[in-house]
Each structure stands twice: as C-alpha cells, then as structure tokens.
Amino acid sequence: MRLFDSHAHIDDEVYNVDFDKMLHRAYDAYVEAIMVAGVTPETIAKALKIAQVNKNIFISVGMHPHEAQYCSDDIIDSYKHLALQYPSIIKAWGEAGLDFNRMHSPREIQEKWFLRHIEAADELNLSMIFHERDSEGRFLQILHSMRHRERKGVVHCFSGTKEEMFNYLDLGYYIGLTGILTLQKRGDILREIALLIPDDRIVIETDAPYLTPVPMKNKTRRNEPAFVRYVFNKLVEIKGSDAETLAQVLWQNSCKLYNIPL
Fold this sequence. Notes:
It is a single chain. It contains nine helices and eight strands. By secondary structure, it is α/β, with parallel strands linked by helices. An eight-stranded parallel beta sheet has the order 1-2-3-4-5-6-7-8.
C-alpha cells in the first residue's frame, strides 16, 4: 500500500526539532510521497532544499491569498524560473486562490494575483493547487471565466457545498480531503459529500501542521504527513471500499494530478 500526502507544509519551522523522525514516521505509515505546497518565496526556498535531498518529496510554487498583498511580477517571474530549472521537483503552481474569511489581503489584490497565478500555471502547463474560503461564489466565477480544458488542479481542503463540489468536478478538478473528514461535528456534511465524489477524483492530504485528524487531534496539535492514513481510513469507512484498491486509486490520482510517473 502506498499513500500520497498531496498537500503539506513540512517546511514549517515546527518540524525543525524532529524533521528526520517526522519523515521516518511518514514512511512507516506507508506515505511514500509528499507535495509541499508553496505559500511564500521564503517557504518555497526552504521546501526546495528539502526536496533536493529527500526522495519523492515534490513542491509547488505560489503565494497564499493571505500573502497576496506582497506578491509582485518579480515574484511570479522568479517562480517561473524555478519551475523551469527544477522540473523534476516543482510539479504544481499554488497554493493560490481567494480567502475572504480573514481578509489578510484586500479582495481586489487577491483576485488580481489569483488570475496571474492561473495564467502562469497555464503558461508552464503546471497543475493548480487552489485555496478557497468564504469567497461567496467569486472563486467559481473566476474558474469558469478562466476555463481551460488542458488545466489540471485540485481544490485543496474542500469544505464547500454539494453544488460547489459538482462544479469543481465539471471543471475537471480533483477534490482534496483533509482531517476535517474525521471530525465528529465539523465533518458531518463533508462525509455526506465525500460519498458522492468519484474515487478517481479524490486526493487525500494533511495540510500539516494544520487540521490534525482524529484520533491524533486528541494527542497533539501538530499534524504531520504520517497522519494522512487517518484521513484514508475514514474514507475507506465512508465508501465501504477495499483499502488496498482505494489506496492504489488515490495514489494514481495524485500522480496524475502532479504529472509524476506512476
């Protein structure tokens, strides 16, 4: 069995104290590949160093919508340069999108750079890692207006409605499921929706160090890639699937999404 943590932030400083042990725990839990999602130039530089010395760790380049006010044409150009320089490591663009929940960056600035991220990803034929929270339909409006039959992407940490989920599927995107799936109250609606998502359009992720799943949520606040197995176990339970068969499908989904040889 092989699991792919399709979205994590193991470049975060919280792992500095036990990084090697954290990776070994992931490997022991059948996690054979990790996508480290980029959110700023600084975190991407650190993630790149990690990926260069660790097998099957890949990264994306992007600017989190919280940080959109600090984005620039120079940063976008630097990301393009990196992607062309390290094609075997940089396999996606993002995470990028809209987050109108906390409004760390003004709405119009978020929208401007979200569009630029999509254009850059299309230019380099890289899959998109999308971030959406409380965008009141604007996120989907942009995706529909920028529809591109060749573009692949994943809606990271999906927690939307059935209607939104079906919209994403119609656009050809994958749905990213996190530890929210395991939470008793917060995960109720998501578990219902997960039943409706075709197996071949799901990827599992931790968003580590955030969103620690049950039962580890009761033991530690810090999530890590090894814990993606709890997201997987819950999905097996919900779907009533054979574990090894579903694991293989999810592995193939992540590899297809990120253009990684199976």
